[in-house]
Design brief:
Number of helices of chain A: 5
Helix content of chain B: 40-55%
Structural class of chain A: alpha+beta
Shape of chain B: globular
Shape of chain A: globular
Largest sheet of chain B: none
Largest interface: A-B, 54 and 42 residues
Order of helices and strands of chain B: HHHEH
Structural class of chain B: mainly alpha
Distance between the termini of chain A: 12 Å
Oligomer: heterodimer
Radius of gyration of chain A: 18 Å
Helix content of chain A: 10-25%
Largest sheet of chain A: 6 strands, mixed
Strand content of chain B: under 5%
Number of strands of chain A: 9
Radius of gyration of chain B: 18 Å
Amino acid sequence: VPPSCDWRKLKGVKSPIKQQGNCNCCWAMAAAGNIEALWCIRYNRSVQVSVQELLDCNRCGDGCKGGFVWDAFITVLNNSGLASEKDYPFRGSLKRHKCLANNYKKVAWIQDFIMLQNNEQTIAQYLATHGPITVTINMKLLQQYKKGVIKATPATCDPYLVNHSVLLVGFGKTNSTERRRAKGGHSRLHPHRPIPYWILKNSWGAEWGEEGYFRLHRGSNTCGITKFPLTARVDLQGKKAPVSCP
Amino acid sequence: DSLWEKDLDPDLLKLKQVFELFRAQYDRSYSNPKEYARRLEIFAHNLAQARKMEAEDLGTAEFGMTPFSDLTEEEFEQLHGHQKITPGETPGVGIKVGSEVMVES
């Protein structure tokens, strides 16, 4: 596991921050972000896939009323891929829409999907060698979040009550200047010890958080980040060249 | 309004000013004065919560005014999460199929 990894630094991987609005479709946006990033890393192809297709063609057909990342991947497998965001754009309304998957050309597809072990070291290793993955966390602290690294306890953020899916795009450690700046020079615990963190991409627009991203402490299962680490696989096992995270 | 505001607690006046900044920044309007008062109350509660979160946080996080500062925790979860899950339920069991979906004719 390298000391840091940030897939946003790889050309083409950093796609625009999605905005789910009042549609409970974080699960679809996280899955779409996962597939887009993997296609860019694996095939050097920058694609934006249709989130609306994931909502309309979901097995329950009520995408804006919530769902899970594995539902999104099952939809991609059932539809043999996804149309582009341009062809099949996001509408985000609570109204149900007919599945139009057959009307458009597929721009990306997956071989299968997997859930990683519930272990932050394993997650970091997979992230660094394959690409961004989706995770599902407790979003309680995100409502008032502005910036910095959130380090919660089970009492302040229940790791079992996960309710929001996002894309994990990297990890790193704070430098001492950030810590001083964040807490006005009055660090309470270890003034010079860097804090390891995860970098996560949210789907609440670029106005929120750190330009649409946020950071969670790495190594303490903050907000249940290890509960459902899922990722698509875009190539056949054993038939891939190693990739390295910037 | 201005006469009435003179009798108010200065902290409340300051809060209202911050709330007006929030409304301007995130383009919020409310249907009636009662709703405005309710949202102001939620906003004040959330700012207090943000202070508490920042004090309890063990990292470097800063909490404060965000686009969601006029929502209750329940509203926020219902609007922006992936769905409401009761503690102890397995996720798959929590899925509601169809029944509450509004369909336009």
